[in-house]
Amino acid sequence: MNKKNGEFQKRLLATFKAEAEEHVKAITSGLIELEKDLPPETGMEVVERTFREVHSLKGAARSVSAANIESLCQATENVFSALKHKEIDLHPALFNTLHRVVDAFNEMIFSSDMGVGFKGERIAAIKEHLSKMEAGELTELQAPAGESGESFPAGTYLSAEVVRVPTEKMVALLLQAEEMVSAKLAVSQQMEDIAAILAMIEEWNRKWSKKYPEIQDLRRIEERKIRSENNRTNPAMSDAGLLEFLDMTRARIRSIEKKVVDLKRQTQQNRYSIGIMTENLLENSKKALMLPFAALFDSFPKIIRDLSHEHGKEVKLTVSGEEVEVDRRILEELRTPFIHLIRNGIDHGIEKPDRRVEVKKPKAGNIEIAVSLVEGNKAEITFSDDGAGVDIEKVREVSMSRGIAQASGNDQPADQEMLSLIFQSGFSTSPIITDISGRGLGLAIVKEKIEKLNGRISIESRQNQGTTFKIAMPLSLITFRGVLVKAVEQVFVIPTPNIERVIRINKEKIKTIENRETIPLEDITVPLARLGDILELPGIQEDRPFLHTVVVESAGKMIGIVVDEILSEQEVVVKNFNRHLSRIRNIAGATILGSGKVAPILNVQDLIKSAMKYHGAPLKVDGSKTKEEKRSILVVEDSITSRMLLKGILETSGYHVKTAVDGIDAITCLKTDKFDVVVSDVDMPRMNGFDLTAKIRSDKQISNLPVVLVTALESREDKERGIDVGANAYIVKSNFDQSNLLEVIKRLI
Fold first, then answer.
1. DSSP-based three-state secondary structure for 370
2. Can you tell me whether residue 731 is helix, strand or coil?
3. What's the CA gap between 727 and 694, in Å, rounded?
4. Residue 3: partners with Cβ closer than 8 Å, 6 or more residues away
5. Distance between CA atoms of 484 and 569, rounded to whole angstroms?
6. pTM to 2 decimal places
7. Would 38 disulfide with which of 42, 365, 370, 720, CB 3.0-4.6 Å?
8. pLDDT at 468
C-alpha cells in the first residue's frame, strides 16, 4: 500500500510541476507586460489575469501540500489585490521585487523537496516585504547575503520531464498510428499473393517435369527431320519453332521465379520492419493516451454520498487497483456504466441502516470496486456491494408475467439464466418508476456500453450477501482480434472475445427442437442460424455435408452461426461510423482488410437477438383488425394550467384523454368509463393522489389499473408513500420531461 501511495504521489508531483511551470511562465509574462506603457484599461486586465495565475498556483500547491509555495502565493495575491483596487501604483521597485518572488517560486517548485528545505527566514523576509508593499511602502527586495541577485536560471525549470499537449492532438497522432496497422496488413496480404504466385510457378514446374520426356522425344524427332533431305525441301513440317518457344518459356518462367523469390525475401524483411515499427508506434501512442482508473474513480465518493443521502442510506466506497492505466477513450465511455451501477447498488442493493442492523450487518453499506490486470493487455473490474442481493424469485415472477422467460412443465429457468435477464431493456423488479430508476434501462445501458468496448459483463448474486458485477475488457481501443468469415460472397469480421469456439458440424447432427435447428455442444444444446438469413442477405448459402459454424456467446446466451467459409484470424482496426450511421442493427463498425476491401464488423449481441427473432415463432396477426384502438387516459389535476398541459401532451401522442379536478371527481369517472391508465397529481383538495391510488387498489374491478403520480413533492418520504399505496410510477415536476411521461405510459399499457 505504501509503495502504491508513493507511486501515486510521484505522478501527482510530476503533474503539479508541469502545471506550476505554466503558471510561473504566465506570471512572468504578465509582469513583463505590466512594465510597458499600457493604457489603464489594458493594464488592469493584465493585473487581473496575473492575479488569477497566482491564485491558481496557490490552489495547485495546496493540493500537493507545498505549504511554503502556498504561503508565498498568498502574500503575492495580497499585493495584486492592492493593485487591482488601486491601493498601490505600479513602480520599478514593485516589479523587481515580484520578479525575485518568481525566482523563489522556481527554486521551490523544481527543487527535489518542493521547497520544504527552503530557508524559513528567507520565506518570512519575502512575505514581510510583500506586506509592506501591500501597505504602500514600495521599496525593492534585496537579495539575501551571499546571493548575486540574478534571476533563477531559466534553463533549470525548462528541463521538466512532462510536456502538456492538447488531447485532440494526441488523439490525431494515435489515429494516424492506427492506420499503420492497415499498412502492416497490406504487406501481409502481399506475402500471401507472392506465395500464391510461387505456388502457381511450382505447379507449372511439376507439369513441365511430367511433359519433359515427351518434349525430349519431340526434340530428337525434330533433329532427325532436320538431318533428312526431305525436310530441307519442306520447312513447314518442322517443329523447331515450337521447341524454341518452349525453351524460351521455360527460361522466362525460371527468371520470373527467381525475381519472385527475391521479392518474397524483400517483402518478408519489409513485413518484419513495418510490424516492429507499427507495434512500437502503437504502443508508445497508446501509453501517451493512457490514464489511471483513479481519474474515473475520484468523482465517485461525492456521487455515492449524494445518492445515499437521498435514499436515506449510509454507504462507503472501497477502491483498489486504481493505478492500472487504460486508454482515456475507454475511461470516458466507462463513466456512464459505472454511474448506473452505483445507482443500481444504492437504490436496489444496499439496505437502509435499520434493516442492516436487523440482519446483523454494519450500519453502513459498502460498495467495492477492484481493478486487476489479466493477460497483460486486459483488465478485470469487479463492482460489488454487500446489500440484499438480487431476489431471484422476484426476477422469475416478473419475467414469467411479461413472457420474457418461460417454463415448460416442472422445469424452471436456472438462477444464472434469471440473473442474465436483468440486463434486458425494460426489465425491472422495482415496484415503482421514478425519475431516476425503475424503468429497467440502467443495466441495459451498462451492458450495451461494455460490449461496445469489446468487453463482457456478468453478474453473481447471493441473497442477503450482495451482488457482484464482473467486467472484462481491453485496455486499449487501438486494435482487437477478429475472425474473418464469408457468407453469401461477403466477408465479415466476428470479434474473437465473443467466440466460444469454431467447429465443423455434420448435417446429420442437426436436430429440430420446437421448430428451431439446434446442434449438440458437449452437454448443452445450442440454437443454430445461418448468417445470410440473420442479415437478410440476397443469395443462397452453399449447401455442404459439413457446416462451418462459429459458436458465439453474449450475456450468457449462446448460438451457432453457420457461414460459407472461415478464412482466418487477424488484427482488426475498427472504423466507427459517423453520427448519421451511429447505430446499425447487427453491425458494430467496419475495418479495411489487407486487400483494401472493407469488411463489416458484426455486433454479436444484435446477431443473437436477430437470430432468435428470425427463427422464432411467427407473430400472430388479426387480419380483421385494421385500425388500432386508441388508449384511454384519465388525467387528475386541480390546476387548470397543468391539466391542460398534460391533456395536450397526451392527445398529441394519440391517446384519448378525459380530465378530473381531484380524487373524488376521478372516482366518479372510473365508475362510468374504462381507462387504461390514470395520471394524477398528489396535492389536491377533497382527495389527494395518494388516497386516490389507495382507493383504486382497494377496488377489485380496477385494482390492476396503472397509476402514474406527477407531483411537485420530491422528498424520499413522499416517494416511499407512493410505493406503499401502490403507484406504478412517481414523476417529479421539477424534473418533468414529456418524453419520460410518454415512455412510462407506454411501458405500463
1. strand
2. strand
3. 8
4. none
5. 6
6. 0.50
7. 42
8. 92
